[in-house]
Amino acid sequence: MKQLNVNVAIIGGGTAGLGAYRAAKAHTDNVVLIEGGPYGTTCARVGCMPSKLLIAAAESVHQIEKAPGFGIYPQGETLINGKEVMARIKSERDRFVGFVLEGVDEIPAADKISGYANFIDDHTLVVDDHTTIIAERIVIATGSRPAYPAIWNDLGDRLIVNDNVFEWDDLPDSIAVFGPGVIGLELGQALHRLGVKTKVFGLGGQVGPLTDPEIMNYANQAFQEEFYLDADVKVESMKRIDGEKVEIQFINLDGEPDTFIVDYVLAATGRRPNVDKLSLENTTVVLDERGVPSADHYTLQTSAKNIFIAGDASNQIPLLHEAADQGRIAGDNAGRFPDIRAGLRRSSISAVFSDPQIAMVGETFKQLEQRFGGCGCFATGEVSFENQGRSRVMLRNKGILHVYGEQGTGRFLGAEMMGPNAEHLAHLLAWAHQNKMTISEMLDMPFYHPVIEEGVRTALRDLNAKLHLGPEMIKHCLDCGPGC
């Protein structure tokens, strides 16, 4: 067996691993990158990019359906060619993956080790049956994978995860989506709009990543107006029938027994970090109750001082920009060890590319409730987009925004929202949050007219009044024009 002695070993060649590799190389040339599967990122291959391609196709159909609301009537039936839809998705997906692989190709061949790594101790890794690596420092960046109940495996190839969707050559006739989280909502709504008979099921009533009860309730109702969504379904049975179908017996929203026969069941019930097959029991790393290494939020250092963890494997925030930041921090610290430094952890921002979109910034409603313990130390400002001027102009007037501010200081704490262009509104609010702005300072910023962002100002004005730092809201204020 081949033996290597290195300064830094990175396990995983995705977003976090590639970021860690580049950061570590800034300090030492003696770095190896270990990858057992195909190089590339979850985002490019099966995540954010191919899903947005599917959503873009669905949005184009939806715009045609909305045209009569403007007095425009497309002639004839809209034909959705599933094969062409999927061909474009796969072609563009492969293009995005190609960009990632171009970066991988620039990594020296000697630095890339093919295979799956297992820990022998805190400093020793065995890669498959061909290489032993003795590393002074190690970064775990092994990503995550879809998780679902094991009993569902009885469905065979009729059970799929989001990865499988982007390998289709054509759209199916029907699908049941389990899990109304980020992936389930995005794919479920998009497939529904593309003509696939779709029902979305969940347990416990959770819709998306939202924690604000009022916004979650609004989101649940808004989605139910467009497609079948039961976020707390009671499933009586689910079994494979006729070879190529799945029969789901459940209690429907009217409380009556119902049956849905589908081509596929899409499991969008969450993801689990890929750390369970690393033989971490051979190390001194302390694991949390989920079996994931505990790590410092700012340094990404585990309890074993020479081992770091980054990206989805850390089970912190499974988003590409977070994985990239964590990879850089972990790689930098592994490279400069023992000179460990706290890295920049940006204000949190997340989005669901549903329609209307869902977005969250800073501290969530649930986190604020837990932190302040019901002391009344924060207030909530609100705006509805149903009567917001620009939103109504575009017939996109659905949604609600809540912004949270601290009593006394007036500091902006966070926001949860469902609404038009929420991805863009969230960026403005995230920048304000990271700069620790007060609500008054945010209200001093420029707002153009007529734009959806004026809704943010309305919510901020409402919040400023509730913090007793500004006047009460004036209904139909005209200082910026009608419909703001």
From TrEMBL:
<keyword id="KW-0560">Oxidoreductase</keyword>
<feature type="binding site">
    <location>
        <begin position="179"/>
        <end position="186"/>
    </location>
    <ligand>
        <name>NAD(+)</name>
    </ligand>
</feature>
<dbReference type="GO" id="GO:0004148">
    <property type="term" value="F:dihydrolipoyl dehydrogenase (NADH) activity"/>
</dbReference>
<feature type="active site" description="Proton acceptor">
    <location>
        <position position="449"/>
    </location>
</feature>
<dbReference type="InterPro" id="IPR036324">
    <property type="entry name" value="Mn/Fe_SOD_N_sf"/>
</dbReference>
<feature type="binding site">
    <location>
        <position position="270"/>
    </location>
    <ligand>
        <name>NAD(+)</name>
    </ligand>
</feature>
<dbReference type="Pfam" id="PF07992">
    <property type="entry name" value="Pyr_redox_2"/>
</dbReference>
<feature type="domain" description="FAD/NAD(P)-binding">
    <location>
        <begin position="7"/>
        <end position="327"/>
    </location>
</feature>
<feature type="binding site">
    <location>
        <position position="312"/>
    </location>
    <ligand>
        <name>FAD</name>
    </ligand>
</feature>
<dbReference type="InterPro" id="IPR036188">
    <property type="entry name" value="FAD/NAD-bd_sf"/>
</dbReference>
<dbReference type="InterPro" id="IPR016156">
    <property type="entry name" value="FAD/NAD-linked_Rdtase_dimer_sf"/>
</dbReference>
<keyword id="KW-0274">FAD</keyword>
<feature type="disulfide bond" description="Redox-active">
    <location>
        <begin position="43"/>
        <end position="48"/>
    </location>
</feature>
<dbReference type="InterPro" id="IPR001100">
    <property type="entry name" value="Pyr_nuc-diS_OxRdtase"/>
</dbReference>
<dbReference type="GO" id="GO:0003955">
    <property type="term" value="F:NAD(P)H dehydrogenase (quinone) activity"/>
</dbReference>
<keyword id="KW-0520">NAD</keyword>
<dbReference type="InterPro" id="IPR004099">
    <property type="entry name" value="Pyr_nucl-diS_OxRdtase_dimer"/>
</dbReference>
<feature type="domain" description="Pyridine nucleotide-disulphide oxidoreductase dimerisation">
    <location>
        <begin position="350"/>
        <end position="459"/>
    </location>
</feature>
<dbReference type="InterPro" id="IPR023753">
    <property type="entry name" value="FAD/NAD-binding_dom"/>
</dbReference>
<feature type="binding site">
    <location>
        <position position="52"/>
    </location>
    <ligand>
        <name>FAD</name>
    </ligand>
</feature>
<protein>
    <submittedName>
        <fullName>Dihydrolipoyl dehydrogenase</fullName>
        <ecNumber>1.8.1.4</ecNumber>
    </submittedName>
</protein>
<dbReference type="GO" id="GO:0050660">
    <property type="term" value="F:flavin adenine dinucleotide binding"/>
</dbReference>
<keyword id="KW-0547">Nucleotide-binding</keyword>
<dbReference type="Pfam" id="PF02852">
    <property type="entry name" value="Pyr_redox_dim"/>
</dbReference>
<comment type="similarity">
    <text>Belongs to the class-I pyridine nucleotide-disulfide oxidoreductase family.</text>
</comment>
<feature type="binding site">
    <location>
        <begin position="142"/>
        <end position="144"/>
    </location>
    <ligand>
        <name>FAD</name>
    </ligand>
</feature>
<keyword id="KW-0285">Flavoprotein</keyword>
